[in-house]
């Protein structure tokens, strides 16, 4: 295996898939970045760095575990790591959280349609959710190709908006920290935590729940695990850099963004209305890439891909998520669902550290 040549195409595809999975409604809209990074001022850099280190670690760990143990089904990783009883309970909990995350994506799509297009939120999100359900029909292999190609495009367009915004608002940089502190003292900022360290841990915690089934499956089905590992490494690095840049753009503009459902869309509109129209498509693509991955994780947990039961479940789970996602505001769902479940995700990361030492898990393949 060590002599196998790297496939640049496969590395690019997996890196793109990872980025697209992580982008979702929170990144593309800026809501997630604002709550987890921008509202901590310059300490947001520390959040980015800690998340990057832990993201690389947990991604490599999950790939290696899937490749080494060939879990069938993928959720067998839980009883393997935590014992049968605790593992089964954790499996049920994770599936429930992932489904709630899908609900967050639905709410994000609705918020985008209402803010940018002034569409009826219900009609818009119904169409969007049905498109997601149809996409999941194809199964994981097809999803990796679809979202792997979309991911880099979203990153590039989001960075264009962020860098452009930083450039035209450079005069706001000196007073950005003071404005952030004033907003926080006034109780106007919605933050993941009162502490940047807890924010970082909560973020990587909920992301870990998302990635377990996704990366274990990729690792299990990899002919060359080196491609997969190089892919998640570069995907993590690029995602972290993009997060830092977008986070900084939001940070210096918190005075006008703090109560926005879609902060990045407001940044685009501040540059020019036509850019906001174009970027709104990027936001929807970002929501789409994560929504299909999350929905696949839930449906594939109970039904075999490409069967009639699998396809029917795609539709049923989508419709239930659609109903719940229209009941609450997007920013509220992000703050409650992600933050609380993120802290619990740290338990899995600590277990991963333990098993890496105990089983001498080979995180990197030369």
UniProtKB/TrEMBL annotation:
Highest rank taxon of the organism: Bacteria
Residue ranges crossing the lipid bilayer per the database entry: 40-63, 90-109, 121-140, 147-167, 196-219, 231-254, 274-298, 310-330, 336-356
Keywords: Membrane, Transmembrane, Transmembrane helix
PANTHER family: CONSERVED MEMBRANE PROTEIN, MEMBRANE PROTEIN
Protein name: Membrane protein YkvI
Organism: Atopococcus tabaci
Source taxonomy: Bacteria, Bacillati, Bacillota, Bacilli, Lactobacillales
């Amino acid at each position: 295996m060590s002599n196998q040549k790297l496939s640049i195409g496969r590395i690019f595809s997996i890196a793109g898939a990872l980025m697209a999975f992580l982008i979702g409604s929170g990144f593309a809209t800026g809501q997630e970045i604002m709550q987890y990074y921008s509202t901590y001022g310059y300490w947001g850099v520390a959040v980015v760095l800690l998340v990057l280190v832990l993201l690389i670690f947990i991604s490599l760990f999950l790939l290696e575990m899937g490749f080494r143990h060939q879990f069938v089904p993928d959720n067998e990783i839980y009883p393997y790591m935590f014992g049968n009883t605790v593992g089964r309970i954790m499996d049920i909990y994770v599936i429930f959280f992932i489904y709630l995350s899908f609900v967050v994506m639905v709410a994000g799509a609705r918020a985008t349609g209402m803010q940018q297009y002034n569409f009826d939120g219900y009609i818009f999100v119904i169409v969007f959710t049905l498109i997601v359900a149809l996409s999941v029909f194809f199964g994981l292999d097809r999803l990796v190709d679809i979202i792997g190609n979309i991911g880099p495009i979203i990153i590039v367009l989001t960075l264009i908006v962020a860098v452009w915004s930083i450039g035209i608002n450079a005069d706001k940089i000196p007073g950005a920290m003071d404005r952030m502190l004033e907003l926080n003292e006034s109780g106007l900022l919605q933050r993941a935590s009162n502490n940047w360290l807890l924010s970082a841990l909560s973020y990587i915690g909920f992301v870990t729940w998302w990635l377990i089934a996704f990366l274990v499956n990729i690792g299990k089905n990899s002919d060359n695990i080196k491609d997969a590992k190089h892919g998640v490494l570069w995907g993590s690095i690029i995602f972290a850099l993009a997060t830092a840049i977008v986070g900084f753009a939001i940070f210096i503009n918190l005075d006008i963004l703090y109560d926005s459902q879609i902060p990045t869309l407001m940044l685009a509109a501040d540059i020019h209305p036509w850019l906001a129209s174009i970027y709104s498509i990027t936001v929807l693509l970002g929501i789409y890439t994560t929504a299909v991955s999350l929905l696949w994780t839930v449906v594939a947990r109970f039904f075999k891909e490409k069967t009639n039961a699998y396809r029917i479940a795609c539709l049923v789970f989508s419709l239930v998520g659609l109903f719940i996602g229209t009941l609450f505001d997007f920013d509220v769902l992000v703050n409650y669902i992600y933050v609380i479940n993120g802290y619990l995700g740290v338990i899995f990361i600590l277990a991963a550290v333990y098993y890496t030492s105990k089983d001498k898990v080979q995180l990197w393949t030369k």
